[in-house]
UniProtKB/TrEMBL annotation:
GO biological process, one term: post-chaperonin tubulin folding pathway
Gene responsible for this protein: TBCC
PROSITE patterns: C_CAP_COFACTOR_C (PS51329)
An annotated GO cellular component: cytosol
The protein's name: Tubulin-specific chaperone C
Subcellular location: Cytoplasm
Species this chain originates from: Lepidothrix coronata (blue-crowned manakin)
Length: 340
């Protein structure tokens, strides 16, 4: 009969055997976890590569379609089919705004520049094909009868202000545009009949409040200081250039802002807004309303459900890991909701 100590020693495993058994169990779990992580990394890389391929295919499709439509618009302009050209140009703008989510910033910029150039060409062709005024002799003034009271001259109706020296971007030929120029501390307003599909220019205004109730084709705001500009839906593009300390509420397909500082924008824009050479500009959603604005939105072709007010491309800020210091969003508690 074995001694009690011998039986106990034979039945219980030694300490090294226990440690070896634990390692045999733990080691496969670590390997499995490491293998799972490796497979997840491979899957992420595969999905990323597929997404990049899709993005490149979408970009190639857009560039081909955009080139075809641009050539079609150019051909229609050359043939004088201006209304058809205007319709195709609006479709071209919609193609661009619907594709910005997968285009590179330089592709967006090239597309915007091409659309702006075609808009200028369309306006120039309209001006060129406009019938010229016929020459007519003026009637001679009749002498007043002796003893009759002299007739007072009737005051001439006020004409829309012509732009100041130099032309804003996109202006064809130098003809006066619809709008205001050179006013100071004034209340200025244009209505639907005056604005409908017109190219509007606001230039060199100081401390003015401008209400544009209607549907312009384009809007240019140039060299304005301390102004408030309230504008209805613009069918195509808005350019703000060289302005400071202004408040602007704008609805458009495309918004470009150059050399501007200290301005607040309340916008509805279907593409991404673009800033260049700007500082201390801020953005919030479009809030302005007036009787008839729904009809103006309908005639403008803008989609009220599409608003990229908080997506801004700063062409002076190329870093992708840090936000641009040149623009910001207006905090909700500081946004203006009542304009009258």
């Amino acid at each position: 009969m074995a001694a009690p100590g011998e039986v106990a020693g034979a039945g219980a495993p030694s300490q090294p055997e226990v440690a070896a058994g634990s390692a045999a169990v733990v080691l496969p779990e670590r390997l499995q976890r490491r293998e799972a992580e490796r497979q997840q990394g491979v899957e992420r890389q595969r999905q990323k590569k597929e997404a990049q391929v899709v993005k490149e295919e979408q970009s190639e499709f857009f560039l081909a379609a955009f080139a075809r439509e641009r050539e079609a618009v150019e051909g229609l302009l050359a043939a004088g089919a201006l209304e058809e050209a205007a319709g195709r140009l609006q479709a071209l703008q919609k193609l661009l705004t619907g594709s910005v989510r997968f285009l590179a910033p330089y592709e967006v910029r090239q597309g915007q520049e091409a659309v702006a150039r075609l808009q200028g060409d369309l306006a120039a062709r309209r001006q060129q094909l406009q019938p010229k005024k016929k020459f007519a002799f003026r009637a001679l003034k009749k002498e007043a009868a002796p003893g009759s009271a002299p007739r007072l001259a009737e005051p001439a109706p006020p004409a829309p202000a012509a732009p100041g020296p130099g032309l804003a971007e996109g202006e064809p030929g130098g003809e006066p545009l619809c709008g205001f120029s050179g006013a100071q501390d004034a209340e200025l307003e244009l209505g639907p009949a005056e604005l409908r599909q017109r190219d509007v220019l606001l230039s060199e205004l100081r401390g003015c409040r401008v209400r544009l109730r209607g549907n312009p084709n384009t809007l240019r705001v140039r060299d304005c200081r301390g102004c408030t500009v309230l504008c209805g839906p613009v069918s195509t593009s808005v350019l703000v250039d060289g302005c400071s300390d202004c408040l602007l509420t704008l609805a458009c397909q495309q918004l470009r802002t150059h050399r501007t500082r200290g301005c607040r924008f309340y916008v509805q824009v279907t593409s991404r807004a673009v800033i260049e050479g700007c500082s201390e500009v801020s953005f919030a959603p479009y809030y302005w309303s007036y009787p008839g604005i729904e009809k103006d939105f309908e005639s403008s072709g803008l989609d009220r459900d599409s608003n990229n007010w908080n997506l801004v491309d700063d062409f002076d800020w190329l870093a992708t890991d840090k936000p641009s210091p040149n623009w910001s969003l207006i905090p909700e508690q500081e946004r203006i909701t009542c304009w009258d």
